[in-house]
């Protein structure tokens, strides 16, 4: 045997014939006989195939697309918003509102309209609760709203850096004498400052906190600052919050309604709220509260006439109160609040009644009469040196004409009134007898508007106004720095806050209001 011959360990297939072909069955039998383990493997695979085929693979499937769910995570809290502490049970619930925060001034109302908590998440919120909270988002404008000092904070046209320094110094004094609750305390402002030095004098009447707070707010908003932005944003926020906290929600009156002159305070406060709306005229909460204040003004007007001190009206009227009401109503209409034409027409009827058509002089209670004075100060501050009521009438006519869409209706009386004002230009005399800050304030705004008709008349008034106001601003001691002494017939009532705010407002005339006369 050859050493290379294979050695068989299994029986070979025996052919019966040399010519007989091997069948598939024979080959298979021979293959399986030679490798029996393959049969076992095939049997196992067949069994596995049948088992797998028996499993209902389609039972867990669905023809519908897969739906993925995710939890919506709310955005992070507004970094400016502070948590609102729950109010005492005797108070109504506080509305939570985002956007801007009034700091550390808890405000409550006695609103009987709703006892439910209401959140106002945006100025477009549909909720109608009238609660005012620490979180508010509000807003100057043009014809009847906060002004602007020019591009990028530059000096406005018509002003100079000396005037601008006086304005800013006055605003700093007001800022440093605001009470913690947001008000300017008419008789206690000297205790609300961190300035060290002699205690300020010049206390006013405690009943006029609402009024002087409104004046201070108008001064801050006059440079373009708002509830949303500006150097004095916080002062405006807390001041507006104070006024709203003082509002009676049933009547709409702002303030206690005591004393014979509380309607002055209400009118000034309403004007301040309306000017605050210019930055956010669609804000539902402030809009409703300002509208209530406007409605109170309308309810206080004499039928077919104007206003004085009584609510409900008793038939008495005067030009001074009526002027403030006209300005508040004009500002209200300018921001889209509801104001009846009859309110403007009644005011105009009164102004016509007390204006002498021969010389254009407007009286306080009678045709061509003199301006009012506190009886005990009539000698110290003679009414003959002031045309305060004529200035009020001029500016009222301009606002009424704008509100009613009238043109050129009162040009003749405006010209005559301007001539009278040029005869009584602002002058700060040594004894103070010629000082009438009330007249200077109204005269400045009336003559600035009249400049569209006679620029030279405004130039003459402007120079006199600046000579009277700017050099007489206090610069020392530090507790007085930036203020004006409350000299004049109304200094005892309004005090140093009143005098400082009105002088700042007078110097802001260049940019606080837009022109009303247009293309006349």
UniProtKB/TrEMBL annotation:
Keywords: Membrane, Transmembrane, Transmembrane helix. It comes from the Bacteria. Residues 108-162 are annotated as: Disordered. Coiled coil: none annotated. Residues 109-120 have a biased composition (Acidic residues). The chain crosses the membrane at residues 37-57. The keyword Transmembrane helix applies. InterPro entries: Terpenoid_cyclase/PrenylTrfase. Residues 137-156 have a biased composition (Gly residues). This is Squalene cyclase C-terminal domain-containing protein.
